[in-house]
Amino acid sequence: MTAFTVRELSRTDTQALLAFEIDNREWFESHIEARAPAFYSSQGVAEHIDRYLSDFARGVWHPLVIEDADGEIVGRANLKNIDSPGHSAEVGYRVGQRACGQGLATLALRHLIEQAKNRWGLTQLVAYVYDDNVGSQKVLQRCGFLPSPPSQGDETAKERRFELALQAAQ
Ligand SMILES: CC(C)(COP(=O)(O)OP(=O)(O)OC[C@H]1O[C@@H](n2cnc3c(N)ncnc32)[C@H](O)[C@@H]1OP(=O)(O)O)[C@@H](O)C(=O)NCCC(=O)NCCS
């Protein structure tokens, strides 16, 4: 079985990340919101990494990548909009089409949950998933997330909210 590592995003990832995002652009755009066209260039990805790392330094974002044994990026996962006073954050992840079905999103989400509890002291995680994204909903439920009932007036929304209550680290 191929070994995979989950690690923090780095400034040296620009070319590997650009290749990953270009290879999987259509795949991602069929499941999640499309990125701006300017993102798909060395400069666009370098700026994106700078922004994520500066948000990491400010404690509002925790960006991770999943790497295979050859050092290729095969997936990404983020703790987003970390709200330290509110002890909550949102999770997001994406796995390259060829690497899907091997448990990588589950591996990355478990890693995010550990970081959320032990590094950031969070007590709640949320995720937003399109109704027809069955694979992602399976990943969330396997990691303990529960679907929230739609709020009033929001019954026709295409996105569904999932929540996970965490036990704060002792
Ligand atoms: C959703 C996504 C992250 C899943 O990544 P992954 O590494 O394949 O996930 P895992 O292997 O950990 O688990 C996926 C599970 O869903 C199942 N699954 C995937 N698509 C499915 C579908 N259409 N119907 C039913 N089950 C499905 C898989 O079989 C697997 O379950 P299993 O382990 O019991 O076989 C990946 O498909 C992806 O990146 N999609 C595009 C971006 C995206 O949707 N991100 C999430 C936004 S909320």
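^ coenzyme A complex. The chain has a mean pLDDT of 94. Helices lie at 14-23, 25-29, 42-57, 104-118, 134-142.
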